[in-house]
Amino acid sequence: MRYFYIGLGVLILLLLLLFLIFCLRRKWAEKKVCRMSTEEKSGKLCEALSVFGFCYNGCDDTVSSRMYCWQRQMGYCRFFDEAAPSMNMVFECEPVYFSYNKKRYLIEFWKGQYGCTTGAEIGIYVHRGYSSLPPEKLFYECASDEERLPMRFVLYRDGEVILRRSCIHWWLTGFVVGMFSRCSKLRMEIGIGFPDRQMCQAFYEGLRRNGYGPRDIRVEQTWVYFSFDNPKSSQPGLYSRRSLRRINRRNRRNCRRYLRLTRPFCSTLDRISYLALCFPLLYRTIIRMGVRCTPKKLCRCRKRHEKWRKRG
């Protein structure tokens, strides 16, 4: 019995020692973050995010995609949306297919929860050459520099603006770190400019085929404006609603954990810098926001897309 109490005492001492080390490490991390300059923190965060194709925006304390990221070499297909929940992404999407200048275009819109972030995206993809397959079965390339379009969106959460983006881009994105949102609570106000009226009309007809009425769309010269609230097109169905709810519970738990652990700080830059020093596992989870795949998985994804397309 004496040895039992000795072992218990040693265990308690070890736990107390670990707790003391943890507290000291947190204090050290807090002081180090406070001593670092904004440029130093921003540089380190952008360097870490660049591996995943993103960058930090200090003007509004959010994260967005880079113009020349590795995702641009991957292209896009419907299977990527189907498999997104495997990367803790639960979103609503609105793919718009149309043809213009002997090319088949896909302009897709997303809004929802991307792991520990709430975000939205607009992507432009092109299929060159002839194919008898329906548009949702094709594999699209990312738009080239000449095919980029001026785009803008405002993301609302329960009627409150949480994100604004405006740029000539092929993949316009924005993510608010640490915010949890259900897709039904989000709304995008979208505007896209086209080089001529023919392409503008082709996109307009694509929206009409999706189920948008004339009152849902506003056309001003070669710009098209509309609101993406409840998707009109069918949503990816690879995962059940029960599975999506389970993923979202995990995302909400991680968001709460992120906010609680980084409570000494208010800005995303300080919070993530603090995580990198004190909680590296959660830090790696955060910076993978919006990543559906990696370059090493590109060939595997394309093979899966072929199987998925044949399966119908």
Secondary-structure element string = HHEEHEEEEEEEEHEEHHHH
Structural class: alpha+beta
Number of strands: 12
Report the sheet with the most strands, covering strand number, pairing sense and barrel closure: 5 strands, antiparallel
Helix content: 25-40%
Shape: elongated
> Low-confidence parts, pLDDT < 50 over ≥5 residues?
none
Helical segment count: 8
The radius of gyration computed from the alpha-carbon positions, rounded to a whole number of angstroms, is: 23 Å
Proportion of strand residues: 25-35%
Structural key phrases:
312 residues; 5-stranded antiparallel beta sheet; 8 helices; 12 strands; 29% strand
Q: How would you describe what is shown here?
A:
This protein has 312 residues and is α+β, with helices and mostly antiparallel strands. It has 8 helices and 12 strands. The protein has helices at residues 2-35, 38-50, 78-83, 197-210, 241-261, 268-278, 280-286, 298-311, and strands spanning 54-57, 62-65, 89-100, 103-114, 117-128, 141-142, 149-157, 160-169, 171-177, 186-193, 217-220, 223-228. Strands 3, 4, 5, 6 and 9 form a 5-stranded antiparallel β-sheet that branches. Strand 4 (103-114) and strand 5 form a beta hairpin. The model has no long low-confidence stretch (mean pLDDT 85). It holds the Pfam family DUF4474.
Secondary structure layout:
Elements: H1 2-35, H2 38-50, E1 54-57, E2 62-65, H3 78-83, E3 89-100, E4 103-114, E5 117-128, E6 141-142, E7 149-157, E8 160-169, E9 171-177, E10 186-193, H4 197-210, E11 217-220, E12 223-228, H5 241-261, H6 268-278, H7 280-286, H8 298-311
Antiparallel strand pairs: 1-2, 3-4, 4-5, 5-6, 5-9, 7-8, 7-10, 10-12, 11-12
